[in-house]
Amino acid sequence: MLYFCGVLGIEDPPRAGVKEAVISCKRAGITVRMITGDNILTAKKIARDLTILTEGGIAMEGPEFAKLDFKSLDNILPRLQVLARSSPQDKLILVQRLRTLGEVVAVTGDGTNDAPALKEADVGLSMGICGTDVAKKASKIVILDDNFTSIVKSVKWGRSVYDNIRKFLQFQLTVNVVALLVAFWGAVFQFGTPLTAVQLLWVNLIMDTLAALAFSTERPTDELLNRRPYGRTGQLISAVMWRNIISMSIYQFTILMVLLFAIDSHGNHFIIPGADDGKLYHGQANVHFTIIFNTFVFCQVFNEFNSRKCDRKENVFEDLFTNYMFIIIVLVTIGFQFLCVQLFGPFTKTLPLNFNQWMLSVTFGFLCIPFAAIVRMVITPCIPIDPFELPANDDNPFLPSKDDLTIKK
């Protein structure tokens, strides 16, 4: 007699947080595909649970995949989401075809057989715990905890580093353009060089060292995952950044030229009471050129705040107090500028300024912020929207709905 005692099932559920990580990747414009050696029924069940396999997506087996020619393969690739019973060669072919179509491909793997695909991909990610040495050497990134959620963190930090570089470039190019124009026009109109070599060295220190440190300490935010990746076609300096650089350069150059040329026929300054024409001093320290130098530096100090945003966002003070290093560097810059002007005159060729003259310099510098805000509001509609600024995946019918892409806490 046969007795039915029961059924035993073994389940290997996904790790906690993997579903949310997949949703975050999709929200960031990253297409997630599952390539596995498991049975296709098992692969489809797990893929649906993780929102990898969606309505309209394709799940197929490796033997069927291997029979496709390149034309047929290219036609199904946009919808291919699950590849089950696959071989290492299938994985390699998939990576190669995606790269041929211009996609940026990241691949995860842990076995020796995964090494060709890891090496072929733009970014190979191997497992630090269960991964073989061959896989680790073939990859560019090793995930130390073998957790898919770490990929989301790496994407977020990678985008943050990229944005910080753009912020620094936006700031640096503005400083360079204004410094060159001031030196050129000063020489053309026989004022000599309003900014001396030592003063330019100090400005260069602000630009290259302190500003780089300030921008590099901007921490990533979850908002970075709400846009498309730049991929191979993204420009390092966007149209919005050129707008910011050119408009701010025009403002600063105009202010400095007004301070330089606002002299009457007797050599008296219209804006700075008690200041004489700087070119009468033949390279000696004078109040006229000191205020130009001081105003130039404070324009850069306040433009650091404007440069914290290199996209269409209008609030340059957003998340400011989460980056204490940025605030400290701004305060240190102001402190050193005060010492340069008030105490280090013999070295910097400056004269001590009174309170009103300091307020004049600070005011002209501070006006960089409202001027930039006006430019963002007035000129932005005239610039075509960069497709990478749009929310990711809003036009892909094979991804979950916006409600599904919202992580519920």
Structural write-up:
There is one protein chain. This protein has helices spanning 18-27, 40-49, 62-66, 70-76, 88-100, 115-120, 133-138, 149-188, 197-216, 239-261, 287-306, 324-342, 345-348, 355-366, 368-379; strands at residues 34-35, 58-61, 80-84, 106-109, 123-127, 141-143. The chain is mainly alpha-helical and 409 residues long. Helix 8 (149-188) runs antiparallel to helix 9 (197-216) and helix 8 (149-188) packs parallel to helix 10. The protein is elongated and about 120 Å long. Mean pLDDT is 86; it is low at 394-409.
Helix count, DSSP H or I runs of 4 or more residues = 15
Can you give the helix content as a percent range? 40-55%
Q: Describe the strand arrangement of the main beta sheet, using strand numbers.
A: 1-3-2
Radius of gyration: 29 Å
CATH topology of the largest domain: Calcium-transporting ATPase, transmembrane domain
**Ends: how far apart?**
53 Å
Strand content: 5-15%
Summarize the helix and strand pattern as letters.
HEHEHHEHEHEHEHHHHHHHH
Name the poorly predicted regions: 394-409
CATH domain class name of the largest domain = Mainly Alpha
User: What is the CATH superfamily label of the largest domain?
Assistant: Calcium-transporting ATPase, transmembrane domain
**Multimerization status:** single chain
**CATH architecture label of the largest domain:** Up-down Bundle
Number of strands: 6
Tertiary shape? elongated
Number of domains: 2
**What profile does the largest beta sheet have?**
3 strands, parallel
What topology emerges from the helices and strands here?
Layout: H1 18-27, E1 34-35, H2 40-49, E2 58-61, H3 62-66, H4 70-76, E3 80-84, H5 88-100, E4 106-109, H6 115-120, E5 123-127, H7 133-138, E6 141-143, H8 149-188, H9 197-216, H10 239-261, H11 287-306, H12 324-342, H13 345-348, H14 355-366, H15 368-379
Helix pairs in contact: 8-9, 8-10, 9-11, 9-12, 10-11, 10-15, 11-12, 11-14
